Amino acid sequence: MEGCARLKNLLLSGSFWNLYSLDLTGTAVETLDLSAVTAPTLDELFLLGCEKLCAILWPPPGESRRKAYLGKLRIDTAGGTTQKEATTDAAAGSSKRSSSHAGFDWYICVRDARLLGSLEPVKDYFGAHEVRMEISTTTAVKVMPPPLADAAGAGSKKDVVKSDRGQQQAKYHATYHAIGMPQQEQITDGPPAPPVSPQGCYMHIQDNQQKTHAAAAASHIMTAVPEFICDGAKALHVHDSLFATAAPFDSAWNQLEWCRVEQCPGLEYVFRTAADGAVFSKLRTMCASHLLNARDIFWDGGVLGPSAFKDLTLLQLYGCPRLMHVFYAGGTLRLQSLDTLEIMWCGDLLDIIWLLPEHDRIEFPNLKRIHLHELPKLQAILNERGPRGSLPTSKSAPMLKTVKIRGCWSLKQLPLVGTNYKVECDCEKEWWDGLKRYSTSHLDDYKPKHPRYYKKTMLRGSVLR
Questions:
Q1: pLDDT of 395-413, one tens digit each?
Q2: Which domain range does residue 402 map to?
Q3: Domain of life, per the record (predicted)?
């Protein structure tokens, strides 16, 4: 029935013992009702270009009525596949349907995230299998996910999912240059995104900034994502959303390995949970940029367990002017895998880590690189906060190799290193001269390197002669 553009209602009832594939590509169907169907061999469902689709009603569970989940499920309600393209692709065969979902048995692209609630009867598929999911109010999605690893651990044909970070940064920097904001310091690319296992869900969320009528749908674009999808997500990319205000609240995100959030001025916090114990236990890469209203990156109202953030390797933050805390939680935060910390242009940042007074243990055994730029309110790199009014103390970073700091005039301390080699510290001379020492030999473990342009310009004599 593909290409039946005027087909709005479809009611199937009875037994379809030999029904293997159902293709409604390019139709105007609003509700696909299969609740009265017995189709134990149904393995493929195609709903590409079905922009009016609101719900899917599945047959009751049970081997006699349907499979636990389909082998192939491809849904596109965001207009990424036009009616003409969908009809042409259908005529050419499923192997040529669309390059955007080629290679994915499950490809889901929706304009309204509430449709995802219809997938709960087949939720067992998520987490154990590869799913490409896009939530977008635009008709075209260009940003691709990180590389997906094959069984051998190397990049496979899914290496088509590459990021266009350089192009986006050029666009952002051109904007800042136009209003006179200096952009001499740019965040580095850092290590490449780690390979994401084929057994997992990649989520891509964006909305169209040019269409204000999409605000109603986009305002709940993230909060409407079901918990079972968040719990199975391996990679998450959220960008260019004017209306998204929060991530789903209830999920612990314990399968998430790679996350990038950018250009979302409505976000007040990136992740906010109330979970106790394990949260973000597999997260390795976290990048956030151009979040104009975000106050916290990670906010947890519970008590963190020992496995929380244990695999976090790279943390990059850029251009979040109202950000006050990166981590705000209670419990024990063991960032034993953290290798690189880069934070730039976050003018209101007070603490990288804020732990409640009764839970203040922090560990950084593998931190090697610190890069901080234009953080005028930051008081300490590695903070432990005691009772209100007490000063933060510095923790040790025994593997630290390089430190680069600019414009962090409230920062008065460096972490203890205690290594057999000197840690290179690239900083302003005035800032270095104002650092506090914990012991007579504390700063002897650092090798200061000041900018070449630094020169004292004091007059040799008085101007009043």
A1: 778 899 999 999 999 998 8
A2: 252-453
A3: Eukaryota
